[in-house]
TrEMBL record, chain A:
GO terms for molecular function: rRNA primary transcript binding. SUPFAM superfamilies: Class II aaRS ABD-related (SSF52954). Residues 14-32 have a biased composition (Acidic residues). This is Brix domain-containing protein. It comes from Caenorhabditis remanei. Pfam families: Brix (PF04427).
From TrEMBL, chain B:
Residues 408-437 are annotated as: Disordered. The keyword Coiled coil applies. It comes from the Eukaryota. GO terms for cellular component: nucleolus; preribosome, large subunit precursor. This is WD repeat-containing protein 74. InterPro entries: WD40/YVTN_repeat-like_dom_sf, WD40_repeat_dom_sf, WD40_rpt, WDR74/Nsa1.
């Protein structure tokens, strides 16, 4: 590092350069123009001295990008990634109560500055710039799960070829859905069931009338229903949904979160009777696969593409987002416009049970045990 | 292979704990779960070289571990439903199907004898000590049968009706003889286990309630009187049949119903499988999933990785081998250690564990006595001193008292502390408990 005096002199030089360039105007090369812009920016922002120096260097390197310079730039790039310039000791002069805040503020500023520095280095490096890092989100740092399903796995394929949903996927059955609710359901629950019925083709809605769920299942089997949805409510609002595949199960219980009815959406359309397309996103583990297959079983096989209706089940951090849209291609055919149709809600799996509904004597395939299983924020099951 | 696992898809798997892997021992693609699901599995011999496997279509197969071959030996006929239990007794195989037809086969796969033990059988298990088997199931009370004569030896009686006078449903899911105790353990869907003593009465002598979901399976462990049980949401507990504390501990890790547990006969290990598709091996001493190197004694290490193997299919049955790849061959040392540990657990009371009459404890007490002797002498001295002090106080000669008493007060303190020690020595029940705990703590500290 150069001593302070030289720094100052360099700064002055740069100032002079800048003035000269401005005078000389458009004559310079393109590269120079860019550099000039950068200098102007830095002047306006009044950044710390150190940064100016860096920029100055860049200007010089722009002229001749040799291997050595490239190495140097890369090193600098790495350095600007990792090292923070401010430390706790820089704020010793402040009273104790203010130090923390000041440090935080300074660090944030510093981070921003380093980010800008990096973008500039990237611009200079052009094609030889190092790859941008993938942002660290909770999902991208997800804990390793042994049950992730590979695409080519004979055993899982064999398992899935013989499970309860196989008849649907072999096109031996067509879905027929029964929707019912808790006994003495209130108006919002009815409303929710109506919306579900609109959205799921070939579904029928029944009031519960105090019939036991096990008898309902028997009756539904007789009438050849393939799925049963029971909406539960709490405080006059739907809060849960039992999803039972017939005739052999399995049964899943989902919690309903953040429910928005169609009427409450800012802009909404009217649903049509076309068979919708189904999108199932991010169901990667073995359990997730099962749930996705289960959800797919609700909808008929061949979507009518003329209806342009889409039902989406998007899994993100174990919450399954339900959306219902009509899409429309713009003239160029590159972008699609979406019009939301159905209700909007989020599901969270609470348990999955083998066989039809039998909460007391049944065997559970998977149960969410919150304190035992939620060991980390980055652990997901679907 | 350390563990042999039977899956609901019909695959037969061998798991190697050392590498944390599993392997399919038959071809997957040809299997049909509706006929090939493995419903029961036992060792064919004591050396653990052959396994008897019962399939859903009631085929009985013999698997040779060394040759890695499966041979069909017989198909059970008569009755309906899958085979619910297998037992091997001197070249004879006992099978029991769900509808209650119990058959004894000889080594030429011919039926020797046959009788019925009532419909809805859920479990049939044999005894290692005598030629008897126990059966039970849904609406089918626990019965023991003599294999030679085919006669019913003993049958249970249902527990008395509840406070409303309603009959308690009979829902047996698992039953087994407790070796060395002449008792029978029964697990029910009513989240209750019952211990029967056939010599005493027909009703259970003990009931153990565990959580709130149906108990699916039980297992023996390396210690007599300790058993494992697991329920339909994957809660597994360790129980001592003598104690009143239930469960002694719960094991973590399982996400779904456990179908089978297999305890190791000598080491404190147990493997469990269930329909959450995982094989898990737990350490019964640390009560955790075995997953790291653990020191058993000064020069003997368990070298262990995480034993939670994802087996890709729902699992029905598991058998844990006696010789495990994760154990060192210096078994004798390990055994010693286990014996010590067993002694450490000692008798249990409602307050928890208490060591009593332990070898180590005796030594500890001796040590205490060694310390005690001089103290006792001092104490006699100090008694007199105390009297003197009192006299001095009566005289109210403050200055004198200060001059004389200060050293004596020190002695007084000593006396008090010594008194405590002596009280502990006397057999007053509460204090001994404390001392026992202290001793335990000391021991632990020393081990650490």
């Amino acid at each position: 590092m150069a001593p302070k005096k030289s720094k100052k002199s360099k700064q002055e030089d740069s100032m002079i350069d800048f003035v000269e360039e401005e005078v000389s105007g458009d004559v310079d090369e393109e590269g120079f123009e860019e550099a000039e812009d950068i200098v102007v920016d830095s002047e306006e922002d009044e950044p710390p001295k150190k940064k100016k120096k860096v920029i100055k260097k860049e200007v010089k390197q722009e002229l001749e990008l040799t291997d050595e310079k490239l190495q140097e730039l890369l090193e600098k790039y790495e350095a600007s990634k990792s090292t923070a310039t401010k430390t706790k000791d820089d704020f010793k002069h402040l009273p104790k109560s203010q130090r923390g805040k000041a440090l935080k503020r300074a660090l944030r500023k510093d981070k921003r500055a380093r980010q800008e520095e990096r973008t500039k280095i990237r611009d200079e490096l052009g094609e030889s710039a190092p790859q941008k890092e993938v942002p660290k989100t909770i999902e991208s740092m997800r804990e390793y799960d042994a049950t992730m399903v590979d695409e080519q796995d004979d055993e899982v394929e064999h398992d899935e070829a013989n499970d309860e949903f196989a008849p649907y996927f072999n096109r031996e059955t067509t879905p027929k859905v029964m929707i019912t609710m808790t006994p003495k359901a209130k108006i919002t629950t009815f409303k929710f069931c109506f919306e579900l019925q609109k959205c799921i083709p070939n579904s029928e809605m029944f009031t519960r009338k105090n019939v036991l769920l096990k008898t309902i299942i028997e009756q539904a089997k007789e009438r050849e229903f393939t799925d049963l949805l029971v909406v539960h409510e709490d405080r006059k609002k739907p809060n849960g949904i039992i999803f039972c595949h017939l005739p052999e199960g399995p049964t899943a219980y989902f919690k309903i979160n953040s429910l928005t009815f169609t009427q409450d959406l800012k802009k909404f359309g009217e649903s049509t009777a076309h068979f919708p397309e189904v999108i199932l996103n991010n169901f990667n583990t073995r359990l997730g696969h099962n749930i996705a297959r289960m959800l797919a079983c609700l909808f008929p096989h061949d979507p009518k593409f003329t209806g342009r209706r889409v039902v989406t089940f998007h899994n993100q951090r174990d919450y399954i987002f339900f959306r219902h849209h009509r899409y429309e291609f713009k003239k160029e055919g590159t972008k699609a416009a979406l019009l939301e149709l159905g209700p909007r809600f989020t599901l969270r799996l609470k348990w999955l049970q083998k066989g039809t509904f039998d909460a007391k004597w049944g065997e559970f395939e998977w149960v969410l045990k919150r304190h035992e299983m939620e060991t980390s924020r980055r652990r997901f099951f679907l | 292979m350390d563990c042999y696992i039977g899956a609901t898809t019909g695959t037969f798997k061998g798991a190697l704990l050392k590498d944390n892997t599993f392997e399919n021992l038959n071809k997957v693609s040809t299997l049909d779960p509706k006929s090939d699901e493995i419903t029961s599995m036992i060792w064919n011999d004591d050396q653990q070289t052959e396994i008897l496997i019962a399939r859903m279509n009631r085929d009985l197969q013999l698997y040779d571990i060394e040759q890695n071959e499966q041979v069909s030996i017989l198909t059970v006929t008569g009755g309906t439903g899958p085979i619910k239990g297998l037992h091997k007794l001197d070249e004879k195989i006992v099978t029991c199907v769900e509808s209650g037809e119990l058959q004894v086969w000889n080594d030429k796969s011919e039926t020797v004898s046959e009788w019925k033990c009532g419909p809805g059988v859920a479990v049939m298990r044999g005894s290692d000590e005598k030629p008897e088997i126990v059966t039970g199931g849904m609406k089918n009370l626990l019965k023991t049968w003599n294999l030679e004569t085919g006669q019913q030896v003993w049958s249970a009686k249902n527990v008395p009706p509840d406070m409303l006078g309603l009959e308690i449903p009979i829902m047996i899911t698992d039953a087994r003889f407790i070796p060395g105790e002449n008792t029978i353990l029964e697990a029910t869907k009513l989240h209750e286990m019952r211990v029967y003593d056939p010599r005493a009465q027909r009703r259970p002598v003990k009931k153990i309630v565990f959580m709130e979901n149906p108990i699916m399976c039980t297992s023996l462990t390396n210690k007599t009187n300790q058993i494992l049980a697991a329920n339909s949401i994957g809660e597994m507990g360790l129980f001592d049949l003598r104690s009143k504390v239930h469960p002694m501990c719960k094991f973590k890790g399982q996400a779904g119903s456990i179908r089978s547990i297999s305890g190791h006969p000598t080491m404190p290990l147990a493997a469990s499988v269930g329909i959450d598709r995982f094989l898990r091996v737990h350490d019964l001493q640390t009560r955790k999933m075995v997953h790291k190197v653990r020191q058993l004694s000064k020069d003997l290490f368990f070298s262990i990785f995480e034993f939670q193997i994802y087996c890709k299919a729902r699992l029905n049955r598991v058998l844990l081998r006696n010789e495990l790849s994760i154990l060192n061959d210096r078994k004798s040392a390990a055994k010693k250690e286990i014996d010590e540990d067993e002694a450490e657990y000692g008798k249990m009371t409602e307050d928890g564990y208490r060591s009593e009459g332990d070898d180590d404890d005796v030594i500890e007490e001796d040590d205490v006595w060694d310390v005690m002797e001089p103290v006792a002498k001092k104490k006699k001295m100090s008694h007199d001193d105390v009297e003197i002090v009192e006299e001095v106080e009566n005289q109210k000669a403050k200055r004198k008292r200060k001059a004389v008493v200060v050293p004596e007060e020190e002695i007084k303190e000593e006396v008090e502390s010594d008194d405590d020690v002596e009280e502990i020595q006397k057999p007053s029940p509460k204090k001994t408990l404390k001392s026992g705990k202290k001793v335990l703590l000391k021991k632990k500290a020393r081990k650490v």
